[in-house]
Design a protein that fits this description.
Blueprint: H1 6-23, E1 31-38, H2 47-59, E2 64-69, E3 73-78, H3 84-99, E4 106-113, H4 118-122, E5 129-130, E6 137-144, H5 146-167, E7 173-178, E8 181-186, H6 191-202, E9 207-212, E10 218-223, H7 226-251, E11 257-261, E12 265-271, H8 276-284, E13 286-293, E14 302-305, H9 310-316, E15 319-322, E16 327-328, E17 332-339, E18 346-352, H10 354-365, E19 371-387, E20 393-410, E21 418-422, H11 426-438, E22 445-453, H12 458-508, E23 512-513, H13 515-544, H14 549-581, H15 585-616
Parallel strand pairs: 5-23
Antiparallel strand pairs: 1-3, 1-4, 2-3, 6-12, 6-22, 7-8, 8-10, 9-10, 11-12, 13-16, 13-19, 14-15, 17-18, 18-21, 19-20
Length: 626
């Protein structure tokens, strides 16, 4: 029997060492923690906030393990998991007192702080992300402000009606809106038919009635139907779901859950998320852009805006823009941060949809020489402490809108689908591009529930899941030892190598392990030893056919190889299909199985062969213990 090549032994040694080292982080359990960060890039944490936070926790008798201050956040590690919610409330109250803005500028979130030694993190070793059913994660329940979506639509329709009446040159028409109904009044009875025609042609979806008052004046009422209101609400929820899924994808979380609950609520679960403050800031932020023309003497309705910079505010004194925007963030199909090649200032390069580009071109083509304002709109989530009927303190989540002009420039020529906007800092430009790229939210949202949850199936079920993997390993190892003696021992060593490689590869890829994933690991152990069973059975057959022990070993590995590869490839294909079409637990099971098949091919064929060659390769053997 030829000696096993040295380079293959070298590969096995390196793979074993790497698998063992990169599996080590999984033995270090994370610390419960709370994390404080700015709601956006313009709000920074500092030493003063850290000292105030520590003082608040000590006053509330919450034991602190240690605190860490970085440029982006404050992480305070606690000694007990049950103290996390208490610490969150105490910190929110302390920051409320400090900012004077009800905590609107800062986010206080629950977290799990890693305890992996620095030398491991320096080489890129990290623990496996555990799913919600094993080690929890971030759980949000958000409520979409659908009435605002309806109101925004009514404001838009009001502007459409006013413009249509003006374009039809119908004079002395009083237009009023109450909730979902418009009333158009005129003293000239001859105007009634013209008003009805304008409303019918412009907004045929509105239900219309008309009448005459005792004094001879006429009126036309146009009301949005309940069906149309439901369609607006459904569109708002549908677009919000799509946008949230896009934003979750930007966070790079494995196996997230984003689904609707009831009429206007959405559940977001991020298993294994290590930075809930970032998740809350990105998911919950309603940032948008509106492009509006500066108001002039012909503008029917206008709104006053402040500039984002105090120097600009003193210079310009604010600006009046037309109330109806040309395009909104919903029309954005692409957004990338960049820098102005002439001034090196941050900018966001924006691409509009076909309809949005047409609207922008039409509006700017007719208004060259006028100024175009870019309005940045952000709804910031804050918490108000109120009292219920029993006089008990209750936390109420509110949305605080913040609108400001970030740019006001003269239109030099007609704009098209692609253009740029400036006036933001580098981090603000990056955040805005991310939010626009992921999709703008059609309505503000508020967090009605937030928690870092533990095992959903209970500690007992988790223990049983882990024990099942351990007992499965013990049973397989015992069977291989009893059935195949020395050969079984080599198979068990290869199986340990397989587990090391599987865990380390999944950690490197940032995979999330769930209870179904543990099932995939147990199945992988069976598949791995099954390959060895095929090899060992083939060796027995060769021995019975009269081959020498060493020749039987060579023939067994060579002749079983194709059978093993075929069986593994079919299982690999099934795992890939499950991963492609499955969701949630099914995808977690498929991912673990897929990686496990690849590692078992390596360990069961190359690993066990190297060990057997090491034992029997340089010896005169008359009998095999198999």
């Amino acid at each position: 029997m030829k000696p096993y090549p040295f380079w293959k032994y070298l590969i096995l040694i390196v793979a074993t060492l790497l698998g063992g080292v990169y599996s080590l982080p999984n033995i270090y359990l994370p610390d419960p923690a709370v994390q404080v960060s700015g709601y956006s890039s313009q709000y920074k944490v500092n030493q003063a906030i850290l000292e105030k936070a520590e003082a608040a926790l000590k006053a509330g008798q919450v034991q602190i393990l240690r605190s860490e201050l970085t440029a982006n956040n404050i992480t305070i590690r606690l000694t007990k998991t049950e103290d996390q919610h208490t610490a969150q409330v105490l910190l929110e109250q302390a920051i409320n007192d400090q900012t004077g803005k009800l905590g609107a500028n800062y986010v206080v979130a629950l977290n799990k702080a890693a305890t992996t030694p620095e030398w491991l993190t320096n080489i890129g070793a990290k623990p496996l992300n555990l799913g919600l059913d094993l080690a929890g994660g971030v759980h949000f329940v958000l409520e979409v402000d659908t009435p605002k979506s309806v109101n925004d639509r009514m404001v838009d329709l009001e502007e459409v009606i006013k413009k249509a009446v003006r374009d039809a040159r119908i004079f002395n028409v009083d237009i009023k809106r109450k909730n979902a109904e418009f009333t158009l009044s005129a003293k000239d009875p001859a105007s009634q038919d013209a008003i009805i025609k304008v409303v019918t042609d412009t907004l045929p979806e509105l239900a219309r009635t008309s009448g005459t008052e005792a004094d001879g004046s006429v009126w036309v009422k146009a009301q949005i139907t309940e069906l149309a209101i439901k369609e607006i609400e459904e569109h708002a929820i549908s677009q919000t779901l799509t946008t949230l899924r896009n934003r979750v994808n930007e966070l790079g979380v494995a196996e997230p859950l984003v689904q609707r609950q009831g009429r206007n609520r959405i559940i977001v679960e991020l298993p294994g998320m290590q930075d809930p403050a970032k998740a809350k800031a990105i998911i919950g932020k309603t940032a948008n852009l509106e492009f509006r023309l500066e108001a002039n003497e012909t503008s029917t309705s206008k709104e006053h805006f402040d500039f984002r910079d105090e120097a600009e505010q003193r210079r310009f004194g604010g600006a009046y823009l037309e109330r109806r925007p040309i395009v909104k963030g919903e029309d954005v199909v692409g957004a990338q941060p960049g820098f102005d090649p002439d001034t090196s200032q941050p900018q966001v390069n924006i691409s509009l949809s076909a309809d949005g580009g047409a609207d922008m071109h039409r509006a700017t083509y007719k208004n060259v020489g006028r100024k175009l304002g870019v309005v940045f709109i952000e709804y910031r989530t804050s918490t108000l402490m109120t009292k219920n009927e029993a006089g008990e303190p209750v936390a109420q989540t509110v949305q605080i809108p913040e609108r400001r002009i970030i740019s006001l420039a003269t239109i030099q020529s007609a704009l098209g689908r692609e253009f740029r906007t400036t006036g933001l800092g580098q981090e603000e430009a990056r955040e805005l591009a991310l939010l626009l790229r992921a999709g703008s939210l059609p309505a503000p949202m508020k967090f009605v529930e937030e928690r870092v949850i533990g095992p959903s199936l209970g500690a007992e079920n988790i223990e049983k899941g882990l024990n099942s993997a351990l007992y499965g390993f013990i049973a397989v190892a015992a069977f291989m030892l009893l059935a195949y003696k020395v050969f079984g021992l080599t198979a068990n060593i290869a199986l340990v190598l397989n587990l090391f490689l599987l865990l380390s590869l999944m950690a490197m890829f940032g995979a999330t392990i769930t209870l179904p994933g543990i099932g995939g690991i147990v199945l992988t152990m069976g598949i791995a030893v099954d390959a060895n069973v095929l090899i060992f059975s083939r060796i027995k057959e060769e021995l019975r056919a009269g081959l020498s022990p060493q020749s039987a070993i060579v023939a067994g590995f060579d002749r079983a190889f194709l059978t093993i590869v075929d069986s593994h490839l079919t299982t690999l294909l099934v795992a890939a299909i499950l991963f492609g079409v499955g969701t949630g637990p099914v995808k977690g099971f498929a991912a673990t199985l897929f990686v496990g098949i690849l590692t078992s091919l390596f360990s069961s064929i190359m690993g066990s062969r190297a060990l057997i060659y090491l034992i029997y390769g340089n010896r005169h053997v008359t009998k095999l213990h198999i």
